[in-house]
C-alpha cells in the first residue's frame, strides 16, 4: 500500500507477453501479477490489454473509460491498494482511437496519457488506426510522487521529458512494444532521458513473437546518473521488483544542477525556428 508521504517505492516491472485480441486473458495476467508479486506500483507494456498487433480488430476492441475492463482494473487497484500502469486502445467520445496509457492509483482514480508520436514508417502503421494526441499533458500524481508517463516512440522526443521535469517529475515511465532490432536504441535513450533530467527511468517492453515481429523484452530501470539498475530477460516474460529511493534525487540535482542551468531562451529559439520550418513546407 502506498502512503501519502513516502521516499521509497517498490515498482514491479512486468515484462509480459499479451494474448493477442484477448482482453479477458490479459486482465487475468494483470491480476495474477498483482496478487503474486509484492510491490506498490505495477507497470505493464504498451497496448497490453489487447496486444499490440491486432490491426483492424482494434476498432472492435477499443475501450471507453467507463468500460467493464477499466472498472475491473480500478477494483483491483483499490482492493490491493496499489497502482497499475498499462497500455490499451482508447475510444474517445468523438469516435477516434488513441494509443493510451492507463494509470490507476491505489484509490482507483484514473489518469490517461495519450501517445503523441505514432510510428508510421517501416513495418509500423499506427497512424492507420490511431490519432496522434496534441493536447496538453501533466504529470501523474501517485501519492506524493510525480510521474511522467510516455509510450514507446515518444522516447525519441526529449522535449516531452523536459516539460515533465520542469513540472517536478522525478520518475519517468515508458511503456513499449519495441522490436528486438530497436532494443539498444531504447536502452541508450532511457539512459539519456534519465541523465538529462536527473530522474529515474523505467522502460517496460513487450515480449513474444507476434505477426512476424520479435518483441525482445530486455526492459530496464535506470538511475538519475544513467546507470542501469536492472535489465530483464530477452525474449521471455520476466518480472523484476525495483526499489527506488527518491531522496537520491535531491543529491543528484544538487551535484548536477540542470534545472538551474536551463536556458529558457533556447525554448524560444526552438519554437521560433519551428515556425519558420513550417512556413517553408
TrEMBL record:
Keyword Hydrolase: yes
A single GO molecular function term of this UniProt record: hydrolase activity, acting on carbon-nitrogen (but not peptide) bonds, in linear amides
SUPFAM superfamilies attached to this UniProt entry: Carbon-nitrogen hydrolase
PROSITE patterns per the UniProt record, alphabetical: CN_HYDROLASE, UPF0012
The keyword Hydrolase belongs to this UniProt entry's keyword annotation: yes
Keywords: Hydrolase
Residue ranges occupied by any CN hydrolase domain in the UniProt entry: 9-246
InterPro entries (UniProt xref): Aliph_Amidase/BUP (IPR050345), C-N_Hydrolase (IPR003010), C-N_Hydrolase_sf (IPR036526), UPF0012_CS (IPR001110)
A Pfam family assignment: CN_hydrolase
Protein name: Carbon-nitrogen hydrolase family protein
Organism: Ignisphaera aggregans
Amino acid at each position: 500500500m502506498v502512503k501519502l508521504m513516502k521516499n521509497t517505492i517498490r515498482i514491479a516491472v512486468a515484462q509480459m507477453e499479451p494474448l493477442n485480441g484477448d482482453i479477458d486473458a490479459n486482465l487475468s495476467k494483470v491480476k495474477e501479477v498483482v496478487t503474486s508479486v509484492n510491490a506498490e506500483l505495477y507497470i505493464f507494456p504498451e497496448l497490453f490489454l489487447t496486444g499490440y498487433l491486432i490491426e483492424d480488430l482494434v476498432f472492435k476492441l477499443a475501450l471507453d473509460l467507463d468500460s467493464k475492463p477499466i472498472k475491473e482494473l480500478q477494483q483491483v487497484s483499490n482492493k490491493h491498494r496499489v497502482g497499475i500502469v498499462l497500455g490499451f486502445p482508447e475510444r474517445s467520445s468523438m469516435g477516434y482511437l488513441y494509443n493510451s496509457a492507463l494509470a490507476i492509483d491505489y484509490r482507483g482514480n484514473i489518469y490517461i496519457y495519450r501517445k503523441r508520436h505514432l510510428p508510421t514508417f517501416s513495418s509500423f502503421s499506427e497512424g492507420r488506426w490511431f490519432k496522434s494526441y496534441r493536447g496538453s499533458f501533466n504529470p501523474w500524481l501517485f501519492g506524493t510522487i510525480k510521474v511522467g508517463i510516455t509510450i514507446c516512440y515518444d522516447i525519441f522526443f526529449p522535449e516531452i521529458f523536459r516539460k515533465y521535469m520542469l513540472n517536478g517529475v522525478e520518475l519517468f515511465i515508458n511503456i513499449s512494444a519495441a522490436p528486438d532490432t530497436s532494443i539498444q536504441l531504447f536502452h541508450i535513450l532511457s539512459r539519456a532521458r534519465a541523465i538529462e533530467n536527473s530522474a529515474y527511468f523505467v522502460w517496460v517492453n513487450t515480449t513474444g513473437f507476434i505477426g512476424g515481429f520479435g518483441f525482445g523484452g530486455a526492459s530496464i530501470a535506470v538511475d538519475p546518473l544513467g546507470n542501469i539498475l536492472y535489465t530483464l530477460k530477452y525474449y521471455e516474460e520476466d518480472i523484476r521488483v525495483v526499489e527506488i529511493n527518491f531522496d537520491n534525487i535531491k543529491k543528484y540535482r544538487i551535484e548536477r544542477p540542470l534545472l538551474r542551468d536551463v536556458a529558457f531562451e533556447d525554448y524560444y529559439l526552438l519554437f521560433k525556428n519551428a515556425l519558420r520550418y513550417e512556413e517553408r513546407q
